[in-house]
Amino acid sequence: MAKLAGNRYLTAIRDGMAVIIPVAIVGSFFTILTQLPIDSWKAFIKPYTVALSLPITFSIGLMGLYSCYAIAASLAKTYKLDRNSSATIAVMVFLLLVIKPGTITTKLANLSGIAAGTVFPTQNFGAYGLFTAMLSAIISVEVIRFFKERHLVIKMPKGVPNSVSNSFVALIPAAVLIIAAWFIKEILHFDVNAGLLTLLSPLAHFGKDNFVSVITPIFFNSLFWLFGVHGAITATPVYPYWYKNLYANIAAVSNGATAATAPHFMTEQFFQFFVYIGGSGAILALCILLAFFSKSAMGKTLGRVVIIPSIFNINEPIIFGLPIVLNPYFAAPFILAPIADGIITWFAMVAHLVNRTIALVPWTLPAPIGAYMATGFDWRAIILTLINIVVAIIIYFPFFKIWDQRQLAKEVAAAAEK
């Protein structure tokens, strides 16, 4: 698990995907603007719906492009390669592999109102092209590293600015990568993106709106955390499908649907605000028990320290402070509580008791607020998160009680000895 957690490729993908969060969140706020539960506001905003969709298109709709650059830059940093030149080459490889330019003729331009010229289909720029973006970034950086380590590069004399020198170092590997990508696409006529989606199609099962896709990610997320490995690493292969579902929901809303009729609920926000309340393991429940119901001094003190960050979904203080890692007292509830919350949320959304998520909002928002905003201001989402917190508290309680009693006994014995 330590080797997996330290894997440079998974780390680069995780860090690269994190880079797109600001633009994705800001873009999502434009979706939220169209979903404010005020009839007068909806009537006012309706003529501007198309204009408001532009930031969404250029944020979540281009996440594959942004991710490719960020992943390549992150991986290049681990090899001490020039980040900008490596990432730029990776983006061109990505574009060559997934984008097939088209042409808008003058006649078609007159009919559609779109300017004549070359056009790029946008589908593969977004979540649909994420796997190819990841592959393009990793292969590009590895090829650049291969050439540099073997000194198969053009070296400029001393005194040449670093930016210019780094560009020439990347020139030969860039030529190899670009020619190879062009050959695969235009000579072999092989669609890399379609091939990857077919190869990784078993993973798509966990992006579907079914029961298994709820339980499995939660189980492995908690299991990895119990061994001290960041649970988010287990979701890395599934992120493209979750983002694809979110973008489909956003597109549906842009075309007149509502958060209640959006097609998917299996998104990252499903887990973030309804399952991982307070952090992985639905850990806010345990923080509440420690802070307000603990009889041991350690439990009370720790609970009051960790409850504030946990409200904002930062779980590291309690994960490593209690700790949860390799703790036999809390291993079972740390797995069972989020699974129970996931099952409850799944049934609620299947039964249309709560809206589907249609926006990417800051993950540090307290769960009720984040769930309320992500579902297009559905007040029922607040009720659901509160129910999930209560369920998690009930599951944690007997395990917490045993731990607290034994901790109290240790403190009493230590005081008596002193």
Give a verbal description of the structure.
The chain is mainly α and 418 residues long. It has helices spanning 2-5, 8-19, 21-33, 39-45, 49-57, 63-78, 83-98, 106-112, 130-149, 162-169, 171-187, 192-199, 201-204, 211-226, 239-254, 268-274, 284-293, 297-311, 316-321, 331-350, 367-374, 379-417, and strands at 102-104, 117-119. The protein has a two-stranded antiparallel ribbon with strand order 1-2. The radius of gyration is 25 Å and the shape is globular.
Low-confidence stretches: none
Silhouette: globular
From the alpha-carbon coordinates, what is the Rg to the nearest angstrom?
Answer: 25 Å
Q: How many distinct beta strands?
A: 2
| Helix-strand pattern | HHHHHHHEHEHHHHHHHHHHHHHH
- Helicity, in percent? 55-70%
Q: How many distinct helices?
A: 22
Sheet-strand content, in percent, reads: under 5%
Specify the biggest β-sheet. Answer: 2 strands, antiparallel
Structural class computed from helices and strand pairing: mainly alpha
Tell me briefly what this model is.
This protein has about 425 residues and is mainly alpha-helical. It has helices at about 1-5, 10-20, 20-35, 40-45, 50-55, 65-80, 85-100, 105-110, 130-150, 160-170, 170-185, 190-200, 200-205, 210-225, 240-255, 270-275, 285-295, 295-310, 315-320, 330-350, 365-375, 380-415; strands at about 100-105, 115-120.
